[in-house]
């Protein structure tokens, strides 16, 4: 998928989400494309897995610790979900941390068992 966000406020998160059964799943992995490795950190992977809040997801609900510009080409990012059981919401996207328009590509979101 290709995600675009206008980062004029130097902030913002965009994502897609789906309810999935994570029973027996240890990690969720997503491949993310970056055109170039850069010392300038402009965007981060945004990841959420768990019970969706009653008022919906917001930027603060996401794990945003992994910078996208830390590589060039495709790179897999993995997140542990082994502590979760049953149907949960899994959301994958990006967070912008730079005042610029950002487009990033995500592919092959997968649930991995032990």
Main features:
8 strands; 114 residues; globular; four-stranded antiparallel beta sheet; mainly beta; Jelly Rolls
List the helices and strands and how they pair.
Elements: E1 2-6, E2 13-21, E3 25-34, E4 43-50, E5 63-67, E6 73-80, E7 87-96, E8 101-113
Antiparallel strand pairs: 1-8, 2-7, 3-6, 3-8, 4-5, 4-7
What does this 3D model show about the protein?
- The protein has a single domain (2-113), classed as Sandwich (Jelly Rolls).
- It contains no helices and eight strands.
- It has strands at 2-6, 13-21, 25-34, 43-50, 63-67, 73-80, 87-96, 101-113.
- The two termini are 26 Å apart.
- The model has no long low-confidence stretch (mean pLDDT 94).
Largest sheet: 4 strands, antiparallel
Q: What would CATH call the architecture?
A: Sandwich
The level of helicity is under 10%
Count of individual domains: 1
Q: What is the CATH level 1 assignment?
A: Mainly Beta
CATH topology: Jelly Rolls
